[in-house]
């Protein structure tokens, strides 16, 4: 497999903007993808936030392995980082965010009281990689569509403030990746979940990466979805098998691997291949 890198020019501007806006907020809501809670944490964002209070939200938890999500929640909390699993699409877990924000900002509230200041709405910055669900979360909290969403990376291009009731104001920010993925597997995991645009990757390689993962973790999910046993054929034939089962034929009746790869990617991202977590808590060394 070749390496994957994707860092369009607008991300440099967005990264700079996040740094400039940091002084305007009380804390950060850091969204990560529950299927890759480690690989979807941007080390640049981590450095920019520094000591700013933060809450990690494991979004799209409905697509991740529930047991792995619970281990990751413990993983973050053991490092004194408040964490919640949520699903912005359905609203699962979202109601717990506001109380946790207030709890996390208790030291700030105490300082306001000591100075005789009147309480104001908390200001939070929503940060994360592309296509992790930041705008969907804000719309869910707002109870209506306030920001543009789409199931592809790079939709939000500029910061947007959204008022959530009387106690919270959210600053939406564009999704940001980092210039170079030191671990090639991180690039494949980000591509598998849709954080890296399909337009800049070899989708057959990414689909093969997913199938390789499933061959070890859940080969039955492939058998149930596509009707073949992975262990009975060579790994280089898996995409052909998908194409054959789906009837994807190109010119001259040749099996269309590209179309099969797109099918695998779509099925993985939508949960039709089951709920899977590509990261493992024990992989984290920090």
Please provide a written account of the structure.
The protein is α/β, with parallel strands linked by helices. The chain has 2 domains: 164 residues, Rossmann fold (3-Layer(aba) Sandwich), CATH 3.40.50; 82 residues, Conserved Hypothetical Protein Ylqf, Chain: A, domain 2, CATH 1.10.1580. Helices cover 40% and strands 12% of the residues. The protein contains 11 helices and 6 strands. A 6-stranded mixed beta sheet has the order 3-2-1-4-6-5, with helices on both faces. Helix 2 links the parallel strand 1 and strand 2. Helix 7 crosses helix 8, helix 8 crosses helix 9 and helix 10 crosses helix 11. The protein is elongated, with a radius of gyration of 20 Å. One of its GO terms (molecular function) is GTPase activity. InterPro entries: G_CP_dom, GTP-bd, GTP-bd_ortho_bundle_sf, GTP-bd_ribosome_bgen, GTPase_MTG1, P-loop_NTPase. Belongs to the TRAFAC class YlqF/YawG GTPase family. MTG1 subfamily. Keywords: Cytoplasm, GTP-binding, Nucleotide-binding.
């Amino acid at each position: 497999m070749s390496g994957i890198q994707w860092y369009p020019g607008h991300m440099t501007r967005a990264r700079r903007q996040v740094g400039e806006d940091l002084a305007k907020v009380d804390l950060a809501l850091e969204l990560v993808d529950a299927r890759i809670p480690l690989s979807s944490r941007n080390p640049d964002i981590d450095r920019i936030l520094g000591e700013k209070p933060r809450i990690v939200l494991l979004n799209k938890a409905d697509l991740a392995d529930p047991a792995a999500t619970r281990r990751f929640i413990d993983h973050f909390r053991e490092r004194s980082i408040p964490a919640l699993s949520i699903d912005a699409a359905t609203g699962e877990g979202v109601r717990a965010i506001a109380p946790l924000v207030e709890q996390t900002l208790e030291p700030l509230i105490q300082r306001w009281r000591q100075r005789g200041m009147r309480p104001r709405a908390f200001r939070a910055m929503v940060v994360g990689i592309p296509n992790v669900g930041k705008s969907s979360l804000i719309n869910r909290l707002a109870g209506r569509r306030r920001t543009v969403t789409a199931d592809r990376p790079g939709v939000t291009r500029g910061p947007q403030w959204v008022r959530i009731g009387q106690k919270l104001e959210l600053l939406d920010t564009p999704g940001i990746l980092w210039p170079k993925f030191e671990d090639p597997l991180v690039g494949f995991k980000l591509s598998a979940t849709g954080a890296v645009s399909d337009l800049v990757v070899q989708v057959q390689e990414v689909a093969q990466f997913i199938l390789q993962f499933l061959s070890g973790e859940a080969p039955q999910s492939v058998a149930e979805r596509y009707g073949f046993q992975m262990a009975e054929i060579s790994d280089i034939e898996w995409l052909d098998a998908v194409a054959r089962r789906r009837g994807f034929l190109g010119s001259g009746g040749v099996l269309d691997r590209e179309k099969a790869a797109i099918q695998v990617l779509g099925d993985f991202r939508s949960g039709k291949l089951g709920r899977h977590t590509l990261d493992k808590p024990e992989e984290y060394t920090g």
